[in-house]
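Table S7 (text form). Paired inputs.
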Amino acid sequence: MKAADRYSQRAISYARYRWDYAPAAVEAAVAECGLTEHSIIADIGSGTGMLARHFVDRVRTVFAVEPNSDMRGIASQTLLGCKAWQSIDGFSDATTLPDSSVDMITVGRALHWFPPDSTRTEFNRVIKPDGWLAVFSVPCTDQGLVESLKAIRTEENGWNVAADKRQLARVPLSFYFGHDKLLKRTFPGLVRETWEDFVGRISSTAPCPRSDHPLRSKFERALREVFERHAADGVLVVTFATEVVFGRLDNFR
């Protein structure tokens, strides 16, 4: 299955249950990278618009580049009427954007799906001289919960290990920037999840067995055990952080 197709039946759950990016992280990137109301951003792998929507009232244009039509559809509904929003059917290494056209490239959770070499070439093609790249992530910081989930993410439970981002070939962030003089800001957060929230969030991930998978019920039983182990009175309190790493691109043109 192509990476672009993995979320075709998960887009609604993704939009509803994934943790949002902290506004303070966006504010830090805007301020430290000197973005203004005249700036142009390309959000690559924009999905349901979860990251890009934080920028639409801050800059002139947000090109939201996303190959999955279901996710683009949700983003377009959510951001209908936003003048800055422009939805683009494209890939990380084939954005269709003009040369030297954007002041900043933003990337969220989709980075691990990108083919590194061709993506870096495309980033350097579309960025303006001295343009910026900002990479956002939202990791769970509750290590006990992380370890409990890791234990049930197995092929025996229907988990698609090959599609697990922890198993995908990854390159250091410095590869995309062309240097390692990067700035990083971290903004802690906390969320309270019911069972519906928890199973919805996990189900929105690409490796999770879908509802029609023969091992779905087995996986869900194991997931319920994890929830009951860490929750209190039917509510799971989870700590996480929004991390943003940013810097200027050292163009390879």
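Next pair, protein 2 of 2.
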Amino acid sequence: MSRVDSPLPVLERYELKFTVPWHQVDAMCEFISPYCQPDKHSALSGDGFYQVNSLYFDTPEYLFLRNRLNGLENRFNMRVRTYGPKPVLPYFLEVKQKRGDIIRKYRARIKDPDLAKVLDHAVPSEGCLVSEGEAENAALFRRLAHTYNAQPVLMTSYRRRAFFSECDDYARVTFDVGLRFKPLTEYHPFDVGDDLAPSDVEGIFDEGASVILELKCYSQYVPLWMVDMIRCFDLRRRGFSKYSAGAAQVFQRSKFDDSLMVSPWGDFNKE
């Protein structure tokens, strides 16, 4: 196992997001091939893509979504992540904090299938965690959920092709396609199913683009090959929030009263 594939309880990184045309993906993969290799999930997949699922939490007033729409400099979101069309244990509690351009990600692997029970305990029960070193992150997720009365609101799913750098301590390149979503208000991270609705790309992606490209690296520096990639393909950085994109469409399709929101939905893709 590569050191970059090893789970890190807390990861601080810089994230650059772009939307790109599908026809450029192979050329970009070829460009990064001298520096990167597919991650273990892509390497085991027939076409290089694997499924990523996220169950997002928010407050009854959608405070986390409001903060994102308003571009608040210091904010966070909460999600439970699983992998594959039929997810299995463990699942991952994740808190992503954003301060300016820096992302800090807190992650805990959980092997107890009863998420509601896990979040009902002040301290994770014995045997609940894959690693006891992640107990503080699990406690953080629970504390935030109880403090803000945050509950499940939305499931998103997409297919990812991912690479990690072999010449940097930490650097990743991911291509995400096929974003789907559904409202989900139960504590069931494995309830992915086939009933997710595809995202309407109009208004979400740049014209002609359908792929979300993310370049991720330690916050201290951006590798030069990433800079060259941005220049070579004339990439234009932009914000993209999978949670906001899915939430906007769920609310609009259900005629949700978006007057509760402090920003128009045209701004849902802010970083």
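Strands lie at 10-20, 36-38, 50-58, 74-83, 91-99, 102-110, 151-165, 171-183, 197-198, 211-218.
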